Amino acid sequence: MQPSPSRDLAVGLFVLAGLCAVAWLSVQVGGLALGPSDRSVFHASFDQVGGLKPRAPVVVAGVRVGSVVAISLGEDLRAHVTLDVDGTLKLPDDTSAAIRTSGLLGDQFIALEPGGSETALAPGSTIAFTQNALSIESLIAKFATGLGSGGEK
Amino acid sequence: MARLLQRLGLRCLGIVEQLGRIALFALSLSRAVLSPPARPGRVVQEVFDVGVLSLVIVCISGAAVGMVLGLQGYNTLIRFGAEESLGAVVGLSLIRELGPVLTGLLVTGRAGSAMAAEIATMVATEQLDGLRMMSVDPVHLVAMPKAVAMVVAMPLLSALFIVCAIFGGYVAGVEILGVDSGTYFSSLESSVDFRDDVAGSLLKALVFGVVVGLIATYRGYTSEPTSAGVSASTTATVVVSSVTILVFDYFITALWGV
Q1: Helix B2-34 / helix B199-221 crossing angle, nearest 10 deg
Q2: A105 exposed, middle or buried (CB, 10 Å; 0-12, 13-18, 19+)?
Q3: What is the pLDDT of residues B88-137, one digit of tens each?
Q4: For residues B83 and B180, what is the distance between their CA atoms, to the nearest angstrom?
Q5: Could you read off the pLDDT of B42-54 as tens digits, one per residue?
Q6: Angle formed by the axes of helices B199-221 and B144-170, nearest 10°
Q7: What single string gives the DSSP state of each residue in B60-115?
Q8: Which of B241, B55, B40 is nearest to B149 (CA)?
Q9: CB contacts < 8 Å between A and B, how many?
């Protein structure tokens, strides 16, 4: 097999283009973190997480700052949610976490609401104030029974 | 009745024998990969044949599939007012299923058939016997570089297919139908995960590369030394590889949840 520079160049370009495609899919689309990234982990316990799933967004004031890593049932029979949040963010230690829904039937996400405290929340600590997922069924049930009793009067 | 049972038994034994032969051929191929010389020049030539020459059809098919997905996804999602999830629909279906599977089928038709036909012609014209006379292992010189090139090229082609298709979906969804461009990419990026989706997609493409490379070289190598044998081995390569890709796709998805 005699060497052919133009063929070798074409193969080199092909391999390079393929590797670029793999890298783009992994890093940009797939969100693969390269190297040590500046992330911090927080925990929060909820009585009811509803339809919250791992990889759901974590937002502060509507801006995405991280994602839900894991949801598990703790020994106290509450749902323990682990959050992975941008490490450069300085959240006060009276930050509260609420599970919200985007739109009426959209995906659920965690909204962090910073309080007014001066001290920062240490990475790895637990967010004390949480607000459960709102269940549309229970809301409808409440509304329906409220209407019923109103009608009888 | 006894005749029927006999025939059934013969068929089953034939299938088992075929599987055994493929396994033995795979063994001698992997031994050829590990034993020197590595034959980089031959491998580069085969990557050129499989990868570079398949590039055009893979990219065009990718863009077309992406545009169709964008169009169909948009028409379905708009009914539920969820057209902002278009990026997720296009990206997930491409990365998890369509990218590796369609690339596997395209490469089977484009390069796998040519590979089998080339080796089968060498069998028919007794070139492989000539190599054996010179005590050159034909598996090492002819089959190994082709199979290696298939394994190398398939994941790269699959990734290029997916990238082309994502931009095809962008053209159909954003440029033509008017979904917001930022929404398209943010829904794509937030729904696709590296470990769950992209790594699985590459694993699938790698497995399909091994499957097609093995079947194409095996069918060519064991073809009848006639012109009918060449055409039979080419047909068998395309049929068997395509069916195997689709069946393996199910099992990879079921076993590893990709």
Answers
A1: 110
A2: exposed
A3: 889 999 999 999 999 999 999 999 999 999 999 998 898 888 888 898 88
A4: 9
A5: 888 888 888 888 8
A6: 140
A7: HHHHHHHHHHHHHHHHHHGGGT-GGGHHHHHHHHIIIIIHHHHHHHHHIIIIIHHH
A8: B40
A9: 79
Contact B98, B165 (CB under 8 A): yes
Structure token digits, residue B172 = 């159909």
Q: With beta carbons under 8 A apart, name residues in chain B contacting A1.
A: 41-42, 45
Tens-digit pLDDT profile for residues A14-55: 889 999 988 888 888 777 766 556 778 888 888 888 778 887
Residue B178 tokens read as: 């008017």
Domain boundaries, given as residue ranges, for chain A: 1-35, 39-141
The Cα of B4 is separated from the nearest Cα of chain A by a number of Å equal to 52
Query: ipTM for the complex?
Result: 0.79
Write out the two tokens for B203: 């694993």
CB contact under 8 A, B45 and A7: yes
CB contact under 8 A, A29 and B166: yes
| Residue of chain B minimizing CA distance to A107 | B85
Asked if residue B256 lies in contact with residue B248, where contact means CB atoms within 8 angstroms, the answer is: no
Contact A22 B156 (CB under 8 A): yes
B201 contacts in A (CB within 8 Å)?
Answer: 25
Among B42, B155, B166, select the one facing A1 at the smallest CB separation: B42
Answer whether A57 sits within 8 Å of B48, measured CB to CB: no
Distance CA A67, CA A150 (A): 43
From the candidates A15, A29, A102, A107, which should be mutated to test the interface with B, based on the most B CB atoms within 10 A? Answer: A29
- By C-alpha distance, the chain B residue nearest A69 is B193
CB nearest A15 (choices: B156, B162, B163): B156
Please name which of A143, A142, A68, A137 lies closest in space to residue A99, comparing C-alpha atoms.
Answer: A68
